[in-house]
Amino acid sequence: METVDPAAVSSYWDAAAPTFDEEADHGLRDPSVRAAWAGRLRAWMPPAPADVLDLGCGTGSLSLLLAEQGHRPVGVDLSPVMVEHACRKLSAAGHAFTAVAGDASDPPASVGSSFDVVLVRHLLWTLPEPGLALRRWLGLLRPGGRLVLVEGHWHAHEGPPYVPGSESLPWLGGVTAERLAGSLRPLVREVDVEPLPDPDLWGGPIDDERYAVIARP
Questions:
Q1: Cα–Cα distance between 131 and 171 in angstroms, integer?
Q2: What is the rounded radius of gyration, in angstroms, for the C-alpha atoms of the chain?
Q3: Which helix or strand (DSSP H or E) is residue 148 part of?
Q4: Strand 51-55 to strand 115-121: parallel, antiparallel, or no bridges (unpaired)?
């Protein structure tokens, strides 16, 4: 089975970074989209200030909302260019922020090992071993902490692979809420699934499955 080269994945997202925020749910530039995500984050987070590890942080849009709500986000992304964008975005808004380039499925020790929340949005589909990543992320939580996964099950991928070998990814195209929750239940004491059909979150209507899973060990 062909494997996925992390360098190819990093290069793919480096190239995507300059235009990444043009997607409504990436840049959160539309006030209604921004407000919708701010509301969901407020509901998912514990009282501020909480230490939040934003894995696959991209250009830092969710980290910025967290910082505005009084939390202490730390970011990890495989793409150094995404990390640069995220750091500039939060710095321009006047927030102290640490983000590092690294493997979000196995976060670098330099970001810390104990968090109130681990937040992950639309990352699992890119991982060769998502089950292993889930276990690692749960191990980063403090007592009483929570893992917040924003995920979806999208249409089957068509056309060439996004990087060589990506056809082998077990959750390419996303994962259903039922399957993800089922993977977590043996590992935690509580799993809640919240459907996310609100078009304000995505910049328009959707016709696929989008949801959040909140897991508490």
A1: 10
A2: 16
A3: strand 141-153
A4: parallel
Distance of CA 139 to the CA centre of its chain: 17
Cross-strand pairs, 121 = 150
Query: 76 exposed, middle or buried (CB, 10 Å; 0-12, 13-18, 19+)?
Result: buried
Instruction: Answer whether 108's CB lies under 8 Å from 100's CB.
Output: yes
Task: Round to whole Å and give the CA distance between 165 and 128.
Answer: 10
Between CA 98 and CA 102, with CA 56 as vertex, the angle to 5 degrees is: 65
- Higher pLDDT among residues 137 and 157, named by residue: 137
The answer to whether the CB of 86 falls within 8 A of the CB of 77 is yes
Per residue in 130-154, is it b (16+ CB within 10 Å) or e — as a string? Answer: beebbebbbebbeeebbbbbbbbbb
Q: Residue 153's pLDDT is what?
A: 96
User: Nearest CA to 185 among 142, 143, 152, 216?
Assistant: 216
pTM above 0.85, yes or no: yes
